[in-house]
Amino acid sequence: MEERKEARKARNEKIVNCLYQKPDAIFRLICFPWAGGGSTHFAKWGQKFHDLLEVHSIRLAGRETRTEEPFVTDINQAVDEIVCALLPLLQDKLFAFFGHSMGNYLAFMTARQLKEQYNLEPVHFFVSSATPPHSQPQIPDGKTLTEEEVKWSYMDFGGTPNCFLINSQEFQEYFLIFKADVHMLNTYNFDAPLKAVLSCDVTCIFGSEDKIISNLEGWKDITSGSFGMYHRQGGHFYLMEPSHEAFIQNHITKCLELSTISY
């Protein structure tokens, strides 16, 4: 029994990355990566927040410490394992979700499953650079794009350093992950909700020059809570600019500090 428990814990730690543990934190912030992304970028945020907040970042199969695992092709399968890994973390603390691009769809479906099956819900859902789930995401099809087309697309979006794109070995690995994630995303479908799925507050943040998102106000359809929207100068990966990243982190802190008044 004890061995099984330890094995489950080790498995969960592969899926949820927390680099800076804060046992006394009031909130846990769960971050969901963009297509092709890993967990490290957002896990490092844990160093930037004070003790109010402990940051956990989702790590999907096929990357980082999970390279031996096959890519997930069904978003529902990915959500099932994320929910299973998160449950031990969400029972004793308030939590919030942050997603960037593809990560928002994983975050939304995770939040919906947590609410429907376990009566758990984030106190705040922070959306970054994503069309609402009931609108068709305008993301290139990873099955049809060539490696060169992906390189130029990401240089255009501003999310991938040129030196990384030039390194053919590193980019080849990234290319395979990106294609798998976009294929998973393109099989995802969610009809416009007849009623709000969530009741938490939702904040949408985006780059003013983003070329692949639309209908951002549609995010307010998913919740009966309040809705806010902010834009920053930049494209789809506007958050790579340190000042914009600091804005997001400060805004998350402010929102969560205010939410403590209600609990």
UniProtKB/TrEMBL annotation:
Pfam family of the protein (one): Thioesterase
Thioesterase domain span: 28-251
InterPro entries with a match to the protein in the record: AB_hydrolase_fold, TEII, Thioesterase
EC primary class: hydrolase
The protein's Enzyme Commission number: 3.1.2.14
Family note: Belongs to the thioesterase family.
Name listed for the protein in its UniProt record: oleoyl-[acyl-carrier-protein] hydrolase
